[in-house]
Amino acid sequence: HKPNSAIPQAYYNKMAGIKRLATETGAGQWGCSLALANSYFGLETTVYMVRVSYGQKPYRKNLMELWGADVIPSPSNRTESGRRMLDEDPDTTGSLGMAISEAVEDAASHKDTNYALGSVLNHVCLHQTVIGLEAIEQLKLVEDYPDVVIGCCGGGSNLAGLAFPFVRDKINGKQIRLLAVEPSSCPTLTKGSYAFDFGDTAKLTPITKMYTLGHDFVPPGIHAGGLRYHGASALVSQLHHEGIIEAAALPQTACFEGAVLFARTEGIVPAPESSHAIRAAIDEAVKAREEGQQRTILFNLSGHGHFDMSSYEAYLGGQLEDYAYPEENIAASLAKLPQVK
Question: Are 175 and 248 in contact (CB under 8 A)?
Fold first, then answer.
């Protein structure tokens, strides 16, 4: 789904005379999409890829490079913020917050460069709503309407893309549930604080009111790298705060179990991020069957897992572990939230 935002961002930057875009990526889907989009418009691409994902997903890095991107494991020695983070913890796994800091610093220090973000921001969420709008039209063809809409949620653009077009119906009284599913080791919506915070670790971005685990929180190195973000979209956060969007947090082994079942049933290998939505959809279907109810369940298969086979190998070999909710680390990070009066 990421090209839905990458292509318009590349186009408008090209029209503005920008020569290069700097960005971050977790699992690599966004970095690949922006590299592809920039190749269409003759723009250069610099991608700061979260260090743990850089090691877990080498073929994502290769694909970005194939489309002309310069891919750097983050944190790196290329930026002042990266060097500071490495000084604090030379063995850090990195985080999306750290990678955003580096990309923003890079863009701010070069006149020919802009920063592009692949999730969280309002324009990205709205670019993605083509997904939900098309889903509504597809459902009309079979004369159906969902009882529950499910999407995995890190920064929030994938969830927003599918769920936002249904929000108006829910506000107007339609009986529909909108469910965001996140990792239990990075439970931004389910256990975070609704407060003003920075979108990056180095505090270079403007503060935004959102659900957050704290801007310097570093999530465990789960394989769903695209969901390892401390915050959530301001729009998704507000809708969750007002009770319009629900949230659930799931451990990665249960999600991979669902992903394997899906692959063996449908013949499609899902990305680890997408496995969160799949697991929740399975749980909803089992619950409906147990209750003797018929429900239409709509979920977003947000990406393929062809470059995540090492993750599946770890799961099938019994080597994949669940990470406990790092309560002490999150409490320490939340204590550093900016004070807004």
Answer: no
Residue ranges of the chain whose pLDDT lies below 50: none
Q: Using alpha carbons, select from 136, 118, 115, 137 the residue that is nearest to residue 128.
A: 118
**What burial letters (b/e) apply to 42-54, b meaning 16+ CB within 10 Å?**
ebbbbbbbbbbbb
Q: How far apart are CA 293 and CA 286, in angstroms?
A: 10
Is domain 123-334 annotated with CATH 3.40.50.1100? Answer: yes
Q: Any idea what DSSP says for residue 309?
A: H
Task: Specify the length of the chain in residues.
Answer: 341
Closest by alpha carbon to 118, among 48, 70, 185? 48
Q: What is the pLDDT of residue 225?
A: 78
> Which parts of the chain are beta strand (E)?
20-25, 44-50, 69-74, 113-115, 148-152, 177-183, 193-198, 207-212, 246-250, 297-299
Question: In CATH, what is the architecture of 3-118?
Answer: 3-Layer(aba) Sandwich (3.40)
pLDDT of residue 217: 87
Question: Hey, where are the domains in the chain?
Answer: 3-118, 123-334
Q: What is the pLDDT of residues 248-277, one digit of tens each?
A: 999 999 999 999 999 999 999 999 999 999
pTM of the model: 0.94
Q: Tell me what pLDDT residue 228 has.
A: 87
| pLDDT score, position 56 | 87
